[in-house]
Amino acid sequence: MKRDTQSFYNRIFSWSDRHLSSEVKGDPDRHLRVQIGLFTTFFGAVVGWGLIAFAVPLSEDPTTLYPYVVGLFLSCLCGLSIIKSKSATLGLEGITILVAGMSILSTYNSGGFNNAAITLFPIIPVYLATFTRPRMLVIGTVISILSLFVFWYLHLIGHTFPVIVEQTPALWFLVTSWEVLNAAGLAFFTQSRFRKAFAIYQQEIERRTKVEQSLRHTQQQLRLAKGVAEAGSLAKGTFLAQVSHEIRNPLTAIMGTIDLLELPAEPAVREARIDILRRSATSLLELVDDVLDYSKMEADRIEINPKAIDPALLIEEIERSYRPQAVEKNLDLLLEIDPEIPSEVIGDPLRIRQVLVNLISNALKFTPEGSITLELWKHTLDDGREGIVFGVEDTGIGIPEDAHSQIFEPYGQAERSTTEKYGGTGLGLPICSRLVSLMGGQFGFETTDGVGTRFWFTLPINANAGTNHRHPTDAPISSGRTHVLVVEDEPLNRQVVGELLESLGHQVSLASCGSEGVAAYKKDQPDLVLMDIRMPDINGMEASRLIRAWEAEQQLPKVPILAMTADVELHRVAHYGEVGMNDLLAKPINREKLEQAVRGWAIRHHRTPE
Fold first, then answer.
1. How far apart are alpha carbons 372 and 363 in whole angstroms?
2. How many other C-beta atoms can be found within 10 angstroms of the C-beta atom of residue 469?
């Protein structure tokens, strides 16, 4: 019902919108006044003509009604003029003046106070307020009151007012009814517009409230994000400063030891200095590996490569490699292995070793006296599967309780004083935790401040694992002098690798780019090719393709090509195999790695099978 009433009002009051210009519709105030003016003018003209027609038979001299005929005609012209935006204001003021003038004239010509036209006076301020500006409202209201005062004064002095129309009850009814309907129409129209405007304003207020709430929520999120970003930036800045410190320490030892090696010294002293070089380089390599591993973890690019391993043998090798450091610090390095541990399980030996090395390095760093114990136990996991537990227990400084939640956060350590005293980047434990999670295990610790700490991690096992796959190092060992082609664009690396190979008794050819490497292979046909990947001319993979294509064209056996690179991610290694490379020789490279590579692949006069 309410919708039907609203539709009825819209049909009555919105018909004028089809004739109004966009300039008028664009101004809400003018649009409202013009709509009321059009409605009142044309409907009022119809009623006015009807009243004149009704008054003609009641008038002794119909010519006295001509001013009203002219007034209605001029009102219609003003009504037409307000459709145009430029003349709308003048048209509305003209309508108001004509209505007020005809009301005053009708009152005078119809007997003063004793006539139906007197009912027009209350509606004049309504017209003025609706159609005109505030100044015209004040002026019109003053004129109306003065006119009434003049009529009253003339009545007091006995002035005789003309009576051009007999004041019958029917005339009073018609005129008064029209004024009532006119006022009701204005009231209905303005009420409808006010409700519509109120609804629009209410919707706008609600919309702005929602927008403000959304903005406040967004600002709060931005403040939180800014806080997190600033905290992360501060933490990373601190981390970079710490990494710089950790890098400079082994570099200082390396550069200083190089200077010392230039001085004459006893063989034992030179051996000790060489050992310092080796340990410093190893420390630097571990630091770089930690940083690279964590960056890969943040990019979700760490992959697990499981294979058959002997866990007891793995932990024994680690114990042997760290025993000299424990002895140097006067620490007891103990080994506890469950006799029921299977001799062969499936796991990633590289990642397991990385976790254990990190844990034992921390134990050596934070244990001033006492012992360190490496543990390996059989264990039943929460889901009922068989598993094994690796553990590293020390009698060191322990971890304060309030720092338990921080040690697994990247770029952080338990205390700043600890960092300053013991060094480190704070990436070791986050890396260990993430690696264990990727391997399907659990990582945890128990600690007592000032007494010691035990870190442990569990891994599921498959005791029915098959035998290890045959690796290149299982190939027949070559004998005699081997011709090796080294393709490397970095001059220092190329020189060092060449000299190391020569120290092993092999013949070496050197090439500084991919195209030189391809040409050197076609000329000399060596027994083994060590190929760098990233080179400015053509990269190592393209050079390998060219070598394989030339071998197929010449119907020659395939020479072993080893990718000698630091790009050791699994997806990259797969691409190396696709272009015909046989294996990976990961940088950094030492004499032992080179010896294993040559012995494993370069079989002179007898090329290895595919």
1. 7
2. 8
What DSSP element (H or E) covers 309?
A: strand 307-309
Domain range 476-601, CATH architecture: 3-Layer(aba) Sandwich (3.40)
Beta-carbon-side half-sphere exposure of residue 497 (alpha carbons within 13 Å) = 31
Span 522-531, average pLDDT: 92
pLDDT single digits (tens) 169-181: 776 777 777 777 7
Query: What confidence score (pLDDT) does residue 468 get?
Result: 39
Phi/psi at 529 (nearest 5 deg)? -120, 125
Burial class (CB in 10 A: 0-12, 13-18, 19+), 293: buried
Q: How far apart are CA 244 and CA 126, in angstroms?
A: 84
> Residue 480 — pLDDT band, cuts 50, 70, 90?
low
Handedness of CA 263, 268, 270, 272 (dihedral sign): negative
What is the sign of the dihedral through the CA atoms of 54, 55, 60 and 62? negative
The CATH topology of domain 308-460 is Heat Shock Protein 90 (3.30.565)
Q: What is the pLDDT of residues 41-78, one digit of tens each?
A: 776 677 777 777 776 776 667 777 777 777 777 877 77
